[in-house]
Amino acid sequence: MSLAKHQVNAGGLVFVPAQTVELDRPLQPLQPLAQEAIARLKTALGANTDILRVTCFATSLDTAAALTGLMNSAFPNAALDLVQTQREPLKSSFGCEAVARLTREGPGGSAVTAPRLVFTGTQLAFGFQDADAVLALQRLDRLLSPFGSSLKRAVLINFFPLSSSVSEEIARVAPPFFDPAHLPGVTRVPFEGLQGIDSSFAAEAVAVVNQ
């Protein structure tokens, strides 16, 4: 867990979940998908052009230099990360999420002006039933409790499911944990290589701290 001890970004932040473009065929060229995903991310950011961090998720790094070049060109002042999500994907996919200093609320992000935020570490879910996913979300919620927060005060949640069926499972069981009046941005990116042979997904959250 991480909680800031001094004020930064006093004007607020905007968190934009991953804007993802995919094709139902593996091993397709990713540059066109990256161009579209980056365009969608810029649209979601709106007027928030002071971008602090961009993380992009790709199903292949065979053209990493070209993909990184597109990211650098689009976001020259941001800290950039490019992550390969799968070794043997069934689809071709590229998506990017971002954090920016808040100018005004954009069309596709969660704007936050609260004085303090809490960032969880990555938490693993074990098992592949709905009840296992609920248990993992309950653990994540309890992690936030000592900081005066909960998943109902989350502004961004990243899920990294092992498969599309697990992603659908998350979509079924997660909504009751959220505040329907203030839904968080949600990223769900299929991800191989989770620790533990029975791990089904990983999750991490950013949430507002109660004052």
Description:
- The chain has 4 helices and 11 strands, in the order E-E-H-E-H-E-E-E-E-E-H-E-H-E-E.
- By secondary structure, it is an alpha+beta fold.
- It has 2 domains: 13-109, 60s Ribosomal Protein L30, Chain: A; 114-208, RutC-like (60s Ribosomal Protein L30, Chain: A, 2-Layer Sandwich).
What are the main properties of this structure?
60s Ribosomal Protein L30, Chain: A; 6-stranded mixed beta sheet; alpha+beta; 24% helix
Q: In the CATH classification, which architecture of the largest domain applies?
A: 2-Layer Sandwich
Content of β-strand: 25-35%
Number of helices: 4
> What are the segments in which pLDDT stays under 50 over at least 5 consecutive residues?
none
Please indicate the count of domains: 2
- CATH class type of the largest domain: Alpha Beta
Secondary-structure-based class equals alpha+beta
Radius of gyration: 17 Å
* CATH homologous superfamily descriptor of the largest domain: RutC-like
Spatial shape: globular
Portion of residues within helices: 10-25%
Tell me the CATH topology of the largest domain.
60s Ribosomal Protein L30, Chain: A
Number of strands: 11
- Measured between the Cα atoms of the first and last residue, the distance is 18 Å
**What does the largest sheet look like?**
6 strands, mixed
Topology pattern, helix = H, strand = E: EEHEHEEEEEHEHEE
User: Quick check: average pLDDT?
Assistant: 93
